[in-house]
Amino acid sequence: MKNYNKVDIRILVGMFLAAFINFNKPFYGTLFLLFFELSILHIIYSNPKLIKQRISTVFNRNQLIAPTAFVLLTTISTLILLMSNASNTQQIYGIIRYFSIIAHIFFTLALSVYFLTQEQNRKIFTPLPASIITVVIFIFIDYHFNPYSVMFSEPNRVIVANNIRHLGYIAMLGCLYCAIKMLQCRIMSKKHLWISIVFSINFSLLIWLGGRGAIVAFIFSFLVSLIVINQNSLDKYKHLTTILALMALSYLISIPLSVFPWNGPNRFMFLSQVHDASINQVSSGRIALWLESISLIIQKPLFGYGPEAHVFETKIGFLQPHNFLLQSLLEFGLLGTAPILLMLYYITKSAITNALTDSTANNLYACGLIIAIISHSFYDGTLYHAPSLLIMCIASSYVLSVTLKRNIPLTNHQIANVAKNET
């Protein structure tokens, strides 16, 4: 950890612990992420050497319109919730989610400014595939001593996520990291061999978990990265052939380890045998969730029902509707959702531009990561649960910092203004 300060170390540790921070209830993961972000903000702003520019001086006014509008509109939705006839429990959970969301915005912007002036972020995403390797070791240990803990989600199991399939969020990102690294490695090199092994472990767990949405999101984001990368067609073909072979090998490895009817190839074969299943059954009940959310959104289209509304307002009672857009519309209405979509559009566009301009491993991975998380969020709670949300915030900060660095004339002008104001 030489030359790494407290912020760098905490970010690396947070990335490494991504597979573990949801705990046996997502609410605890939300609290962990809130205090984690606040601790980093405290370190940054308590040390003038870490961040010499203010957010308002680094970003121009147009870039801050969407975040500012989002903060104001979510505040209005939260105030409406507090003035409604909602229960005290709903109001308390709503307030906690409100402060968590506001923290995400300030954390992402502040970390962008931090990355802009610091050069210690080359290995920022490295801990993600390592996190999954640690998970695999713990799953083997946990199953050996207490096999029912994995099956029945017992709170005393080693892997403390409330839903073990949520590990698929991190596994798909670990696979993507290794795949992009392999695209930039010389085939048959020692580094390529090690990355291939790590990729096989990550992809085997992804198949073992049986999450269809995570697998599709990984493939989609990898294909985008394959198109974006600045590499000749022959090299792309060679790397793609290797990755496809490793995916096939990982699938075979997962077969004897898929000992439950809900996981791995067993799940895919079960679905293929159910010929009379409805669309709702094939989607694991998502259609019912979406239809119920839509019916509620129509009743309060402008400001929604306030933060954390889904679990309290719906009859089904899940924490989230397994669709980011519907959740945002339900909580914050059309007015609050519009700036969220603008922010995601800007971040995605910036990530693609960064990757096209300079196809470094980090630029390519940040681009693929953001596309994977956003695409997966339309089928699951990827932008709701703490582990994937933490990674999304850090990746967005990295993308914004690269965008700011690329805009050299503007950045130099702003830094000069800051120096002038300080004197």
Key structural traits:
single chain, 423 residues, disordered C terminus
Structure explained in plain terms:
With 423 residues, the chain is mostly helical. The chain has a domain at 6-155 and 310-422. Helix content is 74%, strand content 0%. It has 19 helices and no strands. Helix 4 (61-83) packs antiparallel against helix 5, helix 6 packs across helix 8 and helix 16 packs parallel to helix 18. The protein is globular, with a radius of gyration of 22 Å. The protein starts with 5 loop residues before the first helix and ends with a helix. The relative contact order is 0.14. The model is unreliable at 410-423 (pLDDT under 50).
Compile the SSE list and pairings.
Elements: H1 6-16, H2 26-46, H3 55-58, H4 61-83, H5 88-117, H6 127-145, H7 147-152, H8 167-183, H9 190-209, H10 212-228, H11 233-257, H12 264-273, H13 279-282, H14 286-299, H15 310-313, H16 324-357, H17 361-377, H18 386-406, H19 408-422
Short description:
By secondary structure, the chain is mostly helical. It has helices at 6-16, 26-46, 55-58, 61-83, 88-117, 127-145, 147-152, 167-183, 190-209, 212-228, 233-257, 264-273, 279-282, 286-299, 310-313, 324-357, 361-377, 386-406, 408-422.
